Amino acid sequence: MVDRWLEKAVAVSYDNEQGERCYWVVLGVLSIQRAFNIAGPLLKNTWIQLRGWRLRAEWWSVMIGSWLAFEGLLRPGEVDELKISDLCFPEEALSVQVVAQASDGGMDSGRLSRALRELAAALDEVNAAAAEDPVLRSGLSASSSGASSGQQQRQQPQPRGEKKGVPTAAAPKATGAAARVLSLGGSSVAYRMDHRCYIVVSNPRAPDFVGFFEGEGAAAWKAIERRLPRGRLSGSSVRLRRVPSRQVAEQ
Question: Where are the chain's structural domains?
Answer without folding.
Answer: 105-133, 195-250
